[in-house]
Amino acid sequence: MIKTKKRGILTVISGPSGAGKDTVVSEVMKKNNNTWLSISCTSREPRGKEKDGVDYYFLSKEEFEEKIKNNELLEYAEYAGNYYGTPKEHIEEHLNKGEDVFLVIEIQGALKIKELLPETLFIFILPPSMKELRDRLENRKTESKKKIIERFKTAYKEINEVTKYNYVIVNDEVKEAAYKVNSILTAEKLRVDRIEEVFVKNPEEEMHELLLKYEKDFVNKDVNIM
Hints:
Helices cover 44% and strands 21% of the residues. It is an alpha/beta fold. It has a domain at 2-36 and 100-197: P-loop containing nucleotide triphosphate hydrolases (Rossmann fold). The strands form 3 sheets. The chain has a 5-stranded parallel beta sheet with strand order 3-8-2-9-10, with helices on both faces. Strands 5-4-7-6 form a 4-stranded mixed beta sheet. The protein has a two-stranded antiparallel ribbon with strand order 1-11.
């Protein structure tokens, strides 16, 4: 039997805006109860039906900068004119409970975490094509044309960072992409450096242990006779 370490895996999910990162993670968590999603904070305005404390912690720019000053963030970055960051609170607690923790964050922040916590798992989500990405951004109907163009240009730069991640997944179908994320997590938990102990209990192993015991007893008996 293989006993893996109890500590959960910290997983960073990144990708261009419109790649479907949040949707994929939501689908992953439906199939895996032993997970926890760290909610990021941002200084941008809510989009559509987004709710404070559910999708993001929505802060003013001044409130965000106060958190930076007080060292309350694991990482933070400025993206498309707004701050995004990961609160430190509760992450370590959930990892120590054996839960896998997801961080859906921008690439700048992800690279900072890679420097601080290199054992973190990094997964990059790509759209099927740049045309599909443009369509997704437009179909949101939550941003101006100028903002969409800005995000689209940023996406080209972000895709060049894919080589700094451990895995890349193309999100052409959400359930399939979520299945791949779960498969990666399963494989990661079987890595040798995540194994705590290995127990082998089968008839052959038990017989081998018994023979070693008899051999030891026989040698000790001979020593005593002499």
